[in-house]
Amino acid sequence: MPRLSTQPYKGTRDFYPEEMRLRRWMFGRLRETVERHGYEEYDGPMLEPFELYAAKTGEEIVNSQLYAFEDRGGRKVAIRPEMTPTLARMVAGKFHELPRPVRWFSTPNLWRYERPQRGRLREHWQLNVDVLGGDPVLADAEVLGLAFELIDGFGGGERIAIRVNHRRLVDHFFREELKLPEGAALKATKAVDAREKVGEERYQAWLLEIGLDPDQARRMDEFFQSPFEATARRMPCEGVELLRGLFAALEGSPARERIVFDPTVMRGLDYYTGTVFEIFDTSPENRRAMFGGGRYDNLLRLFGNESLSGVGFGMGDVTLQNFLETHRLVPALPAATDVFVALPSAGLRKAADAVARELRKAGLRTVTSLTPGAFGTQLKQAQRLQARFTVLLGERELAEGMYLLKNMATGEQSAHGLGQLAPAIRA
Amino acid sequence: MPRLSTQPYKGTRDFYPEEMRLRRWMFGRLRETVERHGYEEYDGPMLEPFELYAAKTGEEIVNSQLYAFEDRGGRKVAIRPEMTPTLARMVAGKFHELPRPVRWFSTPNLWRYERPQRGRLREHWQLNVDVLGGDPVLADAEVLGLAFELIDGFGGGERIAIRVNHRRLVDHFFREELKLPEGAALKATKAVDAREKVGEERYQAWLLEIGLDPDQARRMDEFFQSPFEATARRMPCEGVELLRGLFAALEGSPARERIVFDPTVMRGLDYYTGTVFEIFDTSPENRRAMFGGGRYDNLLRLFGNESLSGVGFGMGDVTLQNFLETHRLVPALPAATDVFVALPSAGLRKAADAVARELRKAGLRTVTSLTPGAFGTQLKQAQRLQARFTVLLGERELAEGMYLLKNMATGEQSAHGLGQLAPAIRA
After folding, report:
1. DSSP 3-state assignment of A337?
2. What is the pTM of this model?
């Protein structure tokens, strides 16, 4: 039989205990912060009907990145490439029962068929945070504040910029100022969103293809380079007013100093209709957006007549980890064995098990040896596990109900009765 | 546009916050127990190469239950139906680096195309626990002990039976006693494994198809009904000796009283070669095995010349939840909002945010209102969230730097300065 490869499927990762500790630490800390803001966790199935993404997720993802196939019963299904459609489906499913605003988070794994590169893999984990309902400006402010707090919880708050824009302002500019027809306006946002990725030459050619003349392209760049107040004066519109309200609502929040107006922020997903934002690392190594999100008004309409506006973002584990490592914000995360119970001979197994049970009852992470053997080989096992303590069983001590406890850091040894071992370790 | 359904894909579940709390509670407690035994968490990708399952997972699963498809690059992949092949791949991939024994656990979601029914869904979550290396009898004993502790951690230890068998004993019986050829022996184990499911008539017909004559079928039933000591006397063999060692190694463990010898336990997976076991609810409502596992000797050989024997089990969330609910072992799991900060008018937003930030710093789960409004509507929001406390902002109190704190259970109100709110809530 040919040997199978030990490599994981292309673009995916194995999480050995060391990598898993890092993932758990990252998501543990994220979870702590969102839960302190009163968000509740939800989850949905990893497969969804294909149609759920066909509607609103955006052409590029659906046509070239979605993992879609027919199940054995002929249903067309897809592995979730993002979480928001599932969220919308679930909220629509209990529209009249859920207390509002709905403040939910989730930590799904998501799949996209991509050419693996820095920051992009085929499978990644994502913290998703959403608020549906409530005053839209206050909800936007809360979500932006929370995005800041999540990064600040790792000590990275000063290293980011939150670039904010509004789809209605962009719409106003494209339709009222440039007089573009609707289709061309949408295409132009896609081109702007991809500008950095495709390069300047391709970007300019793209604008020509869409039908923008050189004067329109020049006015676009002017718009993109204008600070907020200049734009606000020159083209008063609803988008400007909503952004002004958002900036005001953020006054006093530590997030406010990190927020900049950036009219080039578009977001690739088709369903955003309001505020859109992207969080960037301010250090030059990471030039692409770390994560982003925005407000969607019409997503629940896919499921019925009810409508409820929401705002949210998804923060991926790969880019977050890159950020934390760039700024040396990951602490040492050692394996956590408290006690190793040695087994000098097979006959002492019952005594070793009894000690281990007692220590576990006291909440200590306790491992027993599964290979009886001499003192030295037992201590080596304890060292490999980085155990803090080893319990040594000796026939003579056992006869007196005593156990030798060795502190692996200091080498100190002391003898204790069964009930005194855990307190001695805790002390 | 036609409306999309709000139902999840057939055979899967949506986890609204209420259901998610239950899932997190279950897995949180399981994780606590396995970590107290020194097991470390790992994870792998949700898609694996198809060949990983084709080799050893067993015909029924691969041919009729596996979610398999070709990716956009023409690779044949499968959604994991079980975790052990991923575990074997990962251990083989770092064979010479990992300290032994390897004590690992994981909590993956797994997929099988099944007709949904009680205890069986297409997507479920599973706690996987494995030990590779160490003395096989001691490792088997540890894993059986741990299976007991996991259930006992929920208060259900007295409600289960752990039925144990050994593949070598079964092999010995089929080959040496019944003189069946190898192929027929394997088929006979499958028939025995499915006996309960397919019914007695189909089972007897199946044995005839395999080529067992009525005398052989009768001797099989005799074997299945004999207690351990009778079988041990009548057919001494390696399997008997290993089981005897296992029962001895469990002496003194609280799991010992729950363990019974059951020669009908086979397990459906093709890779088991040693001890096999199934955990049953002793109450008559749940007649099928809750979960099970066993020892596999040759799984790492799929990847190279190295070999390392392992033992493990997978415990599914659906059957576990059924068990816990049957025995009323699930506590109330309320939503956890500590404080609701009311917003009497939009102008007080900044003050409300400052209070919320202060309380969150103190670790309290704090929600601010996103809809300014009168006292009564604010309190209703707090009640719907089951918040324990509400902070009320009044212009007059604020002018003096004071905040009204309302205990939602007792109705008591008291006034505090900003720094005193958190201590007052904790008290």
Report:
1. coil
2. 0.95
